[in-house]
Amino acid sequence: MKIILSGGGTGGHIYPALALIRRLQVMNPTVEVLYVGTEKGLEKKIVEKAGIPFKSVEIQGFKRSLSLSNFKTIQLFFKSVADSKKIVKEFKPDIVIGTGGYVCGPVVYAAAKLNVPTIIHEQNSVAGVTNKFLARFVSKIAICFEEARAEFPKFQDKVVLTGNPRAQEVANIEKSPVLTEYGLATQTPTLLIFGGSRGARKINEAFLEALPELATKDYQVLFATGEVHYEKINQEVEKLNLQNKNVAVVPYIYNMPEVFANVSVVMGRSGATTLAELTALGLPSILIPSPYVTNDHQTKNAESLSHHNAARLIPDNELNGAQFIQAADELMLNEPLREEMAKEAKKLGVVDASDRLIRLINKLINN
Hints:
There is one protein chain. The protein is an alpha/beta fold. 44% of the residues lie in helices and 15% in strands. It is built from 14 helices and 13 strands. A seven-stranded parallel sheet has the order 3-2-1-4-5-6-7, with helices on both faces. A six-stranded parallel sheet has the order 10-9-8-11-12-13, with helices on both faces. α7 runs parallel beside α8 (230-240), α7 packs across α12 and α10 crosses α13. The two termini are 14 Å apart.
């Protein structure tokens, strides 16, 4: 089997693709994979580090306002389609899969025009512009949230709920003493707080405001500030000279899925990959959607959990220290509520997401 995958721009488009590749390699060691991205994108560094063959095309996204650069974008699109056709003809894939971001536009479009079976994988509950464009050309549309089905009203016969491959990758992670690495106890209920890899200003501010009270709680807190904010926040924490050792502050958590498996509640943003991991593990959450994403898709992602009582949702502009403490206490001081929310989260998890996607791949290839 030979497969081309394409996706980029953010980790949310890249990591599901890598999770799928790893599962494919387990199930079929002879599978040949080629990843197509951009030279400047995050995907080049991540994919090459993973040891996966990589080729690039030059493409950029459209500006939402009227801009001369959009004319260049159109030129680049046609050139990248031609380049993608060349890549597809040389590699001769059995199927081509796009996982989002503007780079997969020309790659998947080119494959469809060459009559190669194609899939787009939409991680969010609100479809991206590229996936909406590609919907009419592809063989199948794989979604992770049932709510995303409505994003493709004219192509319902193509839509298949597969879930996010990252969910299957983390579903069976077992408890470990990982919290001791952060100076925390393994048996104490733990609240994990983070605002994404770069951190989130509003979450950081609310944490500092709530910290004096957090430090008095019977539960413990692990807070990842984001690399760029760590020094400033750590200085503020040290000024308080907290006696209670129930709060640990770190710049970044590299083994996040393992930490997820050992905490009681997660508070943070509602990116698609994070929610796939939380639901796969059956973990209650307090979600504060980023207001800085396209089409406010993180709010829609969060609502897909909060409407099922699997999460609490706090709008970013309403977050403050008092709200922070109230939400944390509601879950951390009420174990029966946590258990009920954990059950609801687990129901939403798709723990065989990669296998579902692979079955769809095989079906398209065999047809």
